[in-house]
Fold these 3 entries.
Entry 1:
Amino acid sequence: MAAIQLIINNASYEVDVAPDTPLLWALRDKLNLTGTKYGCGMGLCGACTVHLDGEAVRACQTPVSLVGAKKVTTIEGLSPDNSHPVQRAWIAEQVPQCGYCQPGQIMSAAALLAKTPKPSDDQIEAAMVGNLCRCGMYQRIRRAIHRASLSQAHGAQAYVAPAYCGGASSGGSAAKGA
Amino acid sequence: MAISRRQFVVGGAVAGAGALVIGVRLSGHLVRAQESDAGAKKPAPNPFDAYVHVRPDGHITLIVAKSEMGQGIKTGLAMILAEEAEVDFNSVSVEQAETRPDIYAHMGTGGSGSTQENFTPLRQAGATVRALMITAAAAKWNVPAAECEAKKGSVLHEKTDRQASYGELIEAARKLPLPNPEKVELKDENDFELIGHATPRVDIPSKVNGSAKFGIDVRVPEMVFAVVARCPTFGGKAAHFDADKAKAIPGVRDVFEIPAMGADKFSAGGIVVVADSTWAAMKGRDALAITWDHGAAASESSEGISDALRTAAQKSGARLRNDGDVDAVLSNGAKKVEAVYEMPLLAHATMEPMNITALVRAGAAEVWAPTQSPDWVQGTVASVLGLKPDKVIVHTMLMGGGFGRRYMADFPAEVAQIAKVVGKPVQLVWTREDDMTHDFYRPATCHRLRGAVDASGHPVAWFHTLASTSIRGYWDPKADAAEGESGGARQLPYAIPNVRLEFNGVNSAVPRAWWRSVEHSFNGFVVESFIDELAAAAGEDPMKFRRSLLVKPPNWKPRFEYDPDPARLLGVLNLVAEKSGWGNPLPKGKGRGIACYHSFGSYFGEVAEVTVKGNDFRIDRIVAAVDCGQIVNPESVRAQTESAIIYGLSAALKNQITIKNGAVEQTNFDAYDPLRINEAPLIEVHLLKSTEDPGGMGEPALPPVAPAVANAIFAASGQRLRKLPFQFKAA
Ligand code: FES
Ligand code: FES
């Protein structure tokens, strides 16, 4: 096995794995970058989503030999301090439940917003349909992407979401007493 | 349940130096407290489940044996404690207890029970901290305690303008006798500043940057990875295997066989491949040449199971409820309705597949387990290795979903078998395929319902025959299987004079166990669909029909365990009707359906709105109303409601596990595809104010969603869907 060079989160690494090894397992098992998750190994769930030169890809379907000089960004490299607009929006909308799918969701959302700063609901669905969330936090994901989009455009204060309400369009679920 | 009020001294294991330690008994609504220093006498038997430590710097730590799987339990428990202790939310942290059943009497997380069990005892514990601090300050200043007030981690005496922080008072507080926790004064609910107020979850920041460590993220120096080739057929085993090719895969270190472990553990056994990485182990497994002995269950099929269930649903069975005379009514001239409902096996499909990491050394073991039942993991690993449980350290890791699957002992048994051979830290990883084909499935069921309405439109008979590949039938074939499957069917809340419930079990080799909301997932669908059918037969509006049957007599008492309070059910029915605009006209092709249901101490009303078009239908929105008693964190209540509804919709619309030649046919998310973002309807959640004890939240939003959708489709199209997952065809 020849060592393979990878540029991950702006640092360069050498991994000694078979060339057909998916990037997912090189990250997790060889480089201890465990933020990128395994969910299906077949490109069906999106838990392993990372960026290759800014493009969202499934790390379980990307052999390390094909990464070449492309820059890999994982969830650990999205920001040093949870300050990426998507991360901030994810916290504001309290998106994660168990949290296991969320690195993949966040990487898909960040790639979408980089290309499409103001996505429509349909564009959000198209970009996120490959990311399963077994905890079912989909409406929070939708809301958080809209929030991140607005905060990217106008600064963090611009988007006043109906916080913790049932649905973005419901205008809040006037909770009786709570 | 009562224990003596003797001073209980905690050993050094849990007592921090100089800290005030209070033991809390969570399950029996009792707090008995003490203070401590190390060097205590042997505390046996230990009555406590959790401990509150007030440290000399004033920080409070709750050490509790509850696992986090996304339900926000750590945030909720900290809120309750901080509220009564009168400290900032941020001065309380919740720590996962070590797995020491000798110190923590009760360790499981499930049955939607975490908030339910802990609410009152934790309030009492917090109030005890507050009372001790006030007493200590009053003595120090020589003023009446009644003139002192606790606020934000300090005691104040306004008259003399004095103030002391809890940290300053701790030394004195530790020496005080403990007040009777049953008698400490709890705060007035109107004064709550945390309980009932949306509070951001403490676990969320670590879940947006990859730093949250799940079980599968455990990395221990020198760790290796293992996967197991299990016989696809339940109960089968390897007749012969050849490992030469597997061993030639770079990174593969070892290949060996482990036997199946039998009842309780129910691990399948198989051929283990150990390697330097998960990928190498998986490739090694692919390269194994195995001849399987498929065993006795190789002829099982879903068709066979369904046929057996349908036959069983036609026969009379164990009678679990029998009011009045159903036979007489069903044989007379009343208007009769008969329907058969069917539900498939289901997999949990947690997002993080099963995994567990272990290190076995001479006479001891250490385990890192994403588990809902750390004490069971400990016992299992100990029994496989022939060790005493106290020689097994279990670290409870974050779980990428539990839903009941992570209660089980199969993967813990396997890792013990493997780690014993490997002699190094080893992480056992289940691939998605392993996870889906070797789950403990939600039982498959068939229900025959017979009902009657009289000439005035009042329902007069309800006869439910439930046939199930029951959970208990798998775990303990000698046990009475009926009890475990009847929840929600036996507690039929509607005022119908003649009611009968009968049960018949069907055997199968397919493993079964608890799946989110357990038997309520099928009984809820059947009860709330059939009441809708009776409403239609009576020509009544389904909401008004239910309303007229939710009657609470003046001296109502629960007849069965977990009997719902009809008034609370009516409360959520009314609220959801109001919020959904029930009764407002809808355009053609659209329909609304309603369901209300109680499980795990919480009440849900749900309305689905659907649009039917050709061979297809779409869910436009789900409106939910919840009465879960006293709400701790409304934020978590909403999130868990959304979660359980989506999980229930996955089952209603898409998912089923089928069996062919004794094995599961679905192996990954291509064939068992949970709901995705483009299929997820808008969900609105409305909370009912209540001062009742908190109910569970992980599960109870699930049962009513499938019937609400089915009833909506009926309203929109006239078509009754009685089989899950729904197969809708244009009329
Ligand atoms: S693990 Fe890569 S898409 Fe599921
Ligand atoms: S948050 Fe649990 S799977 Fe998405």
Note: Chain A has two domains: 3-77, 85-158.
Entry 2:
Amino acid sequence: MPAERKVCLSGSGLTKVFGFGRRKTVAVDHVDFSFYEGELVSIVGESGSGKTTFAKMLLGLLKPTEGEIYFQGKKRDISTQKKRKEYWKNIQAIFQDPYSSYNIFRKIDTVLLDCIHMRGGRGLPRAKKLEMMEEACSFVNLKFEELTNKYPFELSGGQMQRLMIARVFLLKPKILLADEPTSMIDACSRATILDELMQLRDEIGMTIIFITHDIGLAYYVSDTVYIMERGRFVEHGSADEVILRPKGAYTRRLISDVPKIYEEWDLSTV
Amino acid sequence: MSNVILEVRELTTKWVTRFKEDIYAVDHVSLKVEEGKSLGIAGESGCGKSTLALSLMGYYFPPLHYVSGEIIIDGQNITGMKPDDIRKSILGTEISYIPQSAMNALNPTQKVISFIEDVVQAHDPYKTKQEIYELARSCFETLGLPASVLQQYPVELSGGMKQRTVIATSVILFPKILIADEPSSALDVTSQKMVIKMLKNLMENGFIKSLIFITHELPLLYNVTDDIMVMYAGQIVEGGSAKQVVFDPLHPYAKGLMGSIIVPEQGQRNVKLTAIPGVPPNLKKPPAGCRFAERCKYVRPDCKVAPVPLYSANGGRAYRCILSEETLRAAYLREAQRDAS
Ligand SMILES: Nc1ncnc2c1ncn2[C@@H]1O[C@H](COP(=O)(O)OP(=O)(O)O)[C@@H](O)[C@H]1O
Ligand SMILES: Nc1ncnc2c1ncn2[C@@H]1O[C@H](COP(=O)(O)OP(=O)(O)O)[C@@H](O)[C@H]1O
Ligand SMILES: [Mg+2]
Ligand SMILES: [Mg+2]
């Protein structure tokens, strides 16, 4: 890791309130954060703690009630359609349900081709485009020949999520936000997906924000961990610091909730 | 010898698609669950876990068809019984089944108690509402759920509470065996833990005599069930005690699954996970030999020739591979040493 780490995305006092009066929910409550370039950061919290709301604000899909977001040191400005499009070139997302983000009537090779076009590769020779698509597929251990002409629903959930990662590989955004990308995937394909995320960080230097309720997964993949409890970041630090030497009771509970196999799993705590 | 609650012998069943193609999702499966014991079934999605659950209950409604084999529930051979009779006299009382994503299937316009009334009255139409309420209240309280849930609608409950409500309801008639199909896969870790605790409590509190727990999460099975069976492409490829299967797997596929376990425990951060390359075979035309051969690191020409039987191994366990226990263990040891250096 370089001595001078550059902040890629940061925020201060970021807040989102839904509803008002008796129905008011403070989903994200004055959070401060700094995510560095090329870092894999996990946001961990139980369901309803505000993770997805936080993610949507980072993506510019939800307007913060209060607070600021800074991208590469400058205040993020997505006030016009043009500026928003410019910002979106830098950030991509992968969600829980891989099928939800696809147009189900679009074949898989066109999905990948679109990515090349989005990066200004429309004029490239056909052979070059093919080569790029093949490279992206092999990055996620999928065989391009087996995908051509298929529709998304013909793939398994795990394959679909890897195809999402292949898209990100082609789009090469600065930041990837992955919101519970493995929660609908079986344990067997999960390891592959996590390893591919780590590879995006290592090989492309992407900043990855990984959102999960499972602190075990966060421990495995991340450099830095932020713990979210009822809209607030209650603890953050290196993965080893937070998971092996947790400070707060909430963090300790998140750790104790994950089944163990080497140590005794204490079931009396729920 | 203790009482066998469920015994399945060489059960084979198939799905018949609209195009009249056969999908053999359960292929010569044998298993036994004794009173007071629990069995876990693991394997990646599509390997046939849910089909096995339906099949061993005799739930043969098209497109699922019985092909061969025997099912014995607490001494009663139910092979060949009409599925309608199964529904009437077996389900709920002998076997209770919680299907995958059952918690989302609760009728949103029905209070929990009225849902329970339906379940109980289907078996005992003469039970009064008051009796059913008392039964439900005592069941919920024993299982650590507030009785107030009974008067609520499913939408008012959190995911974890909904799932625990479904489980409590499923045991209200004291079935001999409960089959829970991925009951915690859609929940966060905290709710999952409550569900697991409840499953463990069911037997201790006498609601059920034995449990079959289906999930692809091995650490969960390890913490809940006595024995574990690993399924691959419709077949059992490994079976043994939870400890044997998790810490000393024999079949290369089972070994691969163990290599994908992620736990937040000291020393586990930098372990290299093993991904199993490739995809399972198409069950419409499974390969002639070992079904895992295409993806196996240890494959030999012999593997692809003829179907591989399930071999018994030391310690009362079984595995489906032509390589000997010693050969497999030696290969795993070599790899571990190579990874460590
Ligand atoms: N569109 C919305 N309208 C009202 N409340 C919302 C909305 N989205 C989320 N919430 C509430 O905000 C809180 C945080 O939700 P969410 O960000 O989805 O949490 P997580 O992703 O950690 O499960 C929850 O209480 C949720 O009910
Ligand atoms: N209703 C059905 N009709 C036809 N095939 C089915 C049906 N349900 C499951 N299958 C097939 O049976 C196989 C096993 O599926 P399933 O038992 O659901 O696996 P698992 O529960 O392990 O994910 C799959 O190949 C699946 O396509
Ligand atoms: Mg969320
Ligand atoms: Mg299933």
Note: DSSP finds ten helices and twelve strands in chain B.
Entry 3:
Amino acid sequence: MRIKNETTRLPRIARGRSLTVLVNGKPVTAYEGETVAAVLLVEGFRAFRHMPASAEPRGLYCGMGICYECLVTVDGMPNVRACVTSLRDGMTIEAGAQP
Amino acid sequence: MNASSDLAIIGAGPAGLAAALAAAKAGVSVVLIDSAPRPGGQYFKQLPASFSGSDSLTHQGEVRQITEALAHHNVTLLMDTVVWDCHQDESDWLLYLFGTTAPKRLRARSIVAAPGAYDRPVAFPGWTLPGVFTTGAVQNLIKSQRVLPGKDIVVSGTGPLTLAVAANLVKAGANVRALLEASPIVKPKTLSSLTAMWAQWARLREGLDYVSTLLSARVPVRIGWAAVEARGRQEVEEVVIAPLGDDWRPDKTRQQVMAADTLVVGYGFTPNTDITRLLGCRHARRHARGEHIPWRDRDMQTSVPGVFAAGDGAGHRGLGAGPT
Ligand code: FES
């Protein structure tokens, strides 16, 4: 779910070469070296997923692969940790859908 | 492809890197394993390899020094690699690995577990709401990914890392609405209490730099206060803050509501014992900290012969502990 866009890429750093990923089917330009979590935040996603039963929103929490709160679907594979997954050109990311 | 070495080190943070260098200098063949794409761990968190530019936030120089030294010795770095199982095979250990460039199995005579630590999670109403992050998550976003996590931010918790995070957020252009230090005794404006309360923190000059950043940005600092609730429908919209009593219970009669899109929480770290538990090491409970650490003898050997534990994951505190 896209709510608002307060997250920004910081200046004064040369990022990797640009690449295109599909976020819920929409082509998005990002950079080699960025994580799935970073591009989702920049795209305005805070809720990366919703709990199957309660529909509570969940998003990035520990940012280092420990808590499994940030799970999204990457290239059709469910339950991938967005915070420790680096982007690849053409990657498809499914995130934020209500159950 | 299978591989073997004298020593497998799990975790390439400060402790794992130091252990690798010490072992390699002693003539031991080492395989150093980490799940991250680059060595350094959380403390020496590096920029992604494809990023470049002047970098005052990470400790690139320090890691480069160690990795260059390692290159002169018999050390194999396996990055992007996870250890998903291990068991004893006669007098050796077999480690089962998962990673793009890693062998499927690694045979090692001994293991050093240097898994590090992670933010101690603290639960409160709304703590699972998107927009509530740990200090570690925000440090990663600012220092490595170079992405700002939000715009109007409350930082709450205790200890030096919340101060560092608040200052880094200010420098990155965020509006830090408040820095809340839960411990009622810390007075960040006085140097003596900084040294007394946060004695584990060797890098005092960095600390003073953070304090002056916060002072010049006029960030409100409240001692003895904490965020007690995060509110919002799909993400953080408001943060409820309250003063704490001596028993750290919030005084709800004096609580205040702040508009914010982000709440950063940091109450120190807890050792990561996944790997030492997998290896069957005996653990001891530290009641005061509410955490478990692997039991060790004077040589840092755990209860399992041939398995050693080092760094924050063994209950040490902060940088500088690792290299010992
Ligand atoms: S945010 Fe905790 S595993 Fe990704």
Note: The first helix of chain A runs from residue 36 to 42.
